Structure formats: C-alpha cells, structure tokens
Amino acid sequence: MSQEFTRGATLKDVAEKAAVSISTASRLLDDRHASKTTETARRVREAAALLGYRRDYAASSLRRTGTSTIGVLVPRLSDAVMGIFYEEIARECERRDLSALVATTGDDPHRLRLAAQSLLSRKVDGLVLTTARTDDDFIAELRSAGVPHVLALRTDGISPSATTDDELGGYLAIRHLADLGHRRVGIVAGPTYASSATMRLAGARRGMLESGLDIDEELFAGNGFSVEAGEEAAGRLLGLPRPPTALFAFTDHSAIGAMTAAARRGLNTPGDVSIVGYNDIPLARHLPTSLSSVRVSLDLIAQGAVRLLLDAEEGSRVFPPTMIPRQSSARIRPV
Amino acid sequence: MSQEFTRGATLKDVAEKAAVSISTASRLLDDRHASKTTETARRVREAAALLGYRRDYAASSLRRTGTSTIGVLVPRLSDAVMGIFYEEIARECERRDLSALVATTGDDPHRLRLAAQSLLSRKVDGLVLTTARTDDDFIAELRSAGVPHVLALRTDGISPSATTDDELGGYLAIRHLADLGHRRVGIVAGPTYASSATMRLAGARRGMLESGLDIDEELFAGNGFSVEAGEEAAGRLLGLPRPPTALFAFTDHSAIGAMTAAARRGLNTPGDVSIVGYNDIPLARHLPTSLSSVRVSLDLIAQGAVRLLLDAEEGSRVFPPTMIPRQSSARIRPV
DNA sequence: CTGTTAGCGCATTCAA
DNA sequence: TTGAATGCGCTAACAG
C-alpha cells in the first residue's frame, strides 16, 4: 500500500519486465490506437498493470502534440449553474480519458485573458468557455490565433458553440405566464453583454407581442444574473405605479431575488405576483414556494461542447429548453 | 496578437536574445532563489518579458522535484460551499504562483480513490481534501504512503487540517435559539461520517444541556447535507406529536429544505418555527425570509489549508464561526 | 511489428 | 558566476 502513491513505475520498468524495448512498450500502451491483441501486447499490458504503471502526462505531453487536457473558463464556481456545468464537463472528460482544468474569471475581460493564458501555458488542447461577452473581442483573438475553442451557454454567433435555445426559453416563459392570464409581465433581465440574456430577452419580447401583453419599456429592468441584481430590479418593477402581476427572471438566482423583493413589499408569491426563473437548478424545486423555471440540459450542453471541441465537428449545437411549471406561477387573481 | 497564444518562446529563445547560455537563463529565471540584481539577470528578465516567455510546467516538472500544482478534492462543485471554497483555494494558489486542480468525488470512497490517483498521477505536490470520512481509512493510507496532504472543513483528528470550530458553531446556534426563548429545538443533523456534522451535533448537545432545553432523542433527525435531506428530516420533526418550535440545520441547504418542509405543513418561518442554518452562503441573506446562519470564513480556511500544505507548518488551524441572526429565527410566540 | 536513435523544454550536475 | 553536458520520461521517425 505504501508504494501505491509513490512515484510509480516508469515505462522503462514496464519494458524490462515485459522484455521488450521502451518504444515498443510505449506504442503498445498508446490508447489512441486500437489496442492490439498480440501476445506481446498482452504481456506489456500485464506488466504495466502489475507494476501499477501510469503514464507521466508531463513527460508524455512534451513529445505528443496534445496533452489530453482541456481548459474550462467560467465566470465563477460559486454559481450552481457553473458548478454543475463544470462537473458535467469533467464527467465527459473522464469518459474520454481526458482531464479538465478550470479557471474562474469573475466575468472580467482582463481576468479572462490572464486565466486563458494560464491555461494555455499548461498546453491544454482546447478551451471551453462560458464567458463570451459581446462587448469584448477576446473570442475573436482566440479565433485569429487559431486556438481551438468552443463556447458554451453563451455564444458570439461565430465560434462553435453549445447552448440552449435561449430565445425559445424566453418565449416559453412568457407564454406560460400569458396562459395563466397575466397581461402585465415584468422582465428581470440580465447583462446585455451576455448572448444568453439578450436571446432570452428577444424571446420574451416575441412572446409578449404574440400574446398581446403590455409592452411598456418600464417593465424591463435589471442587468445582472445574481440574487442581488434580481432583488434590486424586481423591487423597482414592483414599485411601479402600475406594477406587473408576474415577473420573468433570467436566472433562478435572480428569480429568488425577485421573490425576496416581493416578500419585502408584503407581496405573496404566487398570490400577488407570479415568478418564473431560468435554468432549473436543483434548488428551484425545493424552495418553500417551489420555483417555476425553464429547464436547461447542462449535461447535454457540456457533452456537446466537448464533442465540438475534440471531435472536429462543425457548427453549433442548440438544445431546446423546457418550461417547468411549479408553485411560484399561478393563474392571475381575479380582480 | 496572433502570436500571443501560439506556443510561446522557449528558454532557448530567451537565452539567445539575452546572449547567455540556456542554463544561465534558467538559473536567473528561477523564482525559488532570491532574484538576482546583476546586469545579466536584468537582461535575461527583459528578454523573457519581451518574448512573453512562460515556463513550460510540463518540461520543468520533469526535472524539478515538484510541479507547483496542488490537487483539491471536494464532494461536489454544485454545492455553493464547495464552489466558494475551491475559488478561495485557487485564489490563494494564484497569489503564490501555483496552480490548482480540482476533482469531485460525490463523497464516495471509491471515487475518492480514483480521483486522488488521477491527481497524483499528474504529480501534484500535495492534496487538499474536504472529503474526510470517519468510516473510511483513505486518509490513513495517504499518511502511511507519505503523500503530503491537508484536510479542510472536515478532519479525521490526525492529519493536519484547517477547519472551523464546528463544536462552537453548533453551540452558538443553539444558544441563539435558546436566547429567543425556544425550549424545544429540533436538530436537522448531517451524515455521521463527517466530522463537521458530528462536531456540530456535539456542540448543539452541549448548548441544549447548558440552556436546559428538551433533549428528546426524537428531536434529532436527518443524515444528509442536501436540501432534500433537510426537507425530509424537518418534515419528520415537525410531524412529531410535540413538535419543536425551532430547527437547527447543519447546512444552509438543509435549512432551506427545512423551511420548505415547514411551508408544506402550513407553518410560517419564523412565526411558527424558527430556523437556523450553517455556513452562511451568499444566498442565505437574500432569501425571501432571510436565513439566520452560522458564518464560516471559507477564505481563511482555504488560506490556512494551503499554508499548512506548503509552508510545512505543523498541526491544525481552527477558525471560530460567528452566529448571524436574520429573519428566520425569532422570539418564540407566546402561547 | 520491433528496436534504435533522437530530442521535446527544462534544471541540474560539473568544470571552467 | 557562467556554459557544456546530461538526462528527467516519454514519443516520433526511422530502419530493420
């Protein structure tokens, strides 16, 4: 046991034990080619197993083209969506016998560059980033530098990406509220630099138009994904002279903030104001007033992203979201 | 710009530019020794900066003893506590010009071993783990194998660790509720394999004893950290013939589950039942009914852990928690 | 299919 | 203090 962790056997040891040359051992142990079934191959694998041989990635990557490692950039890991997303990426990597490195950027362009540099200096084979900002040209820089990358959750419309259909998601949320009889729906929007937010907004507008809802510009507020941002924006909306009877928030966290803002004003959810969130994080269904939300398949998006990055697939993947109604949205109260 | 990401300059390039040998450049750029102030040193650093030289960690670690990388093992990243903890670890590593690798284990002993192997095979200099289980001897194996490691948030009582004083935290939570006049407090406990949970329990018991609260064994329920676990356990407690007037949950998530269980039974928080959580995640203060919670300094714990691991400090660090009262806990209603 | 040779980028001998 | 030489563990190019 005490040997189990100590710097393991090297290729040389394996080669000796199997009575072959080092390069033969190397070749026979290379998982990239179809694993051979010859007697020698069996012997080498047996020797490797016996000695507990594990390839030294550092040394290996020195000669190989790639490192079998991908880099993942997210705004923050304290956000459940990003945490789950990264876990799914890591899971997919594990399946493919790769590893993943994460770095957080705080959604700050400067920190993004630093973090990407740091990842790249570790020679990752490619980057998955959920940090695309329409007001920053970092993604364009990656493209022109020829760095393999794929966007996830957010897109810049050019680089390959794996996203949910945010326009549809926004549309579904509004349709759901309209179906419940709401005519005046407030939008707790997200940052304009994120495509996810602008697409949700576009979908919401389409839904409002189609369903003949009020489209006052004063019904649109907010520019963040956080609980605080949601609370602040919802507070303003609910303080309007003609307040909305329902709110659509662009994340579950900002929806929780919206619930809080409502509660602070003595309004019940859904009695006085219906609320719909986005992402359907696990917490949503377990809240005291369970949260209606637009579900996004983070696992599919993560798998799609890895596939786009490594399997040289073209274009982008867009996965459809689903509206999950729960307690927080209800039929409008007859006045 | 398009060169910025391409495989950067090597030591050889720097050496040429500075008109010195490769080995001189290597030595002068070695951050482990006091940075020299000679003219040559300046020239080498300037050349390095000009070329955007970044040490190749893979190659470097082939010769150096260490890799300047530490491995972090957490149960899951979708949990806000772990997400924040890892971010703090990563921040501290950045300060020290190290990097960190994370892996999740799902709190499963088998996956823990696999993940640790995977990290170790990447030759990390040491391990930070928040996954200690009293019913598993993996930590003991690490010790006997001589793998540098430090425990965080949970401890096994032997290996060096950075934790909060969970016993005190449990005590403070109960004292807080007792001070509000509650005599019958239900405990939404955590898994018995986690020292954090057993210590909180011990502290809670001490508080109950000291404050003369009811100590029925039926007031203790639950064995998980999740929202679901909290909801389930709180549901049982609140269904008791003589239900508690307050609940102390061992995590904020299980406290939210407890709030949900209360709501499902038509009970108001804090009107009918007061609730206190643990960890004070950012969400706690922003809930519709803001959650009273025991605050833990994840940043200090993270820094302490890295310090213990790398600065060869001895023993363990225990940081004191703080009780943060909010809306979810209130004076008991006069009957 | 096999073994020999060369070298990835770097840090460390050692001799100057 | 410097530079030449050596090799970390591994893979790729080559010849057998």
TrEMBL record, chains A, B:
Keyword DNA-binding appears in the UniProt entry: yes
InterPro entries registered for this protein in UniProt: HTH_LacI, LacI/GalR-like_sensor, Lambda_DNA-bd_dom_sf, Peripla_BP_I
Tagged with keyword Cell membrane: no
PROSITE patterns given in the database record: HTH_LACI_1 (PS00356), HTH_LACI_2 (PS50932)
Domain (HTH lacI-type): residue spans on this chain: 9-64
This protein's UniProt keywords: DNA-binding, Transcription, Transcription regulation
Protein name (database record): LacI family transcriptional regulator
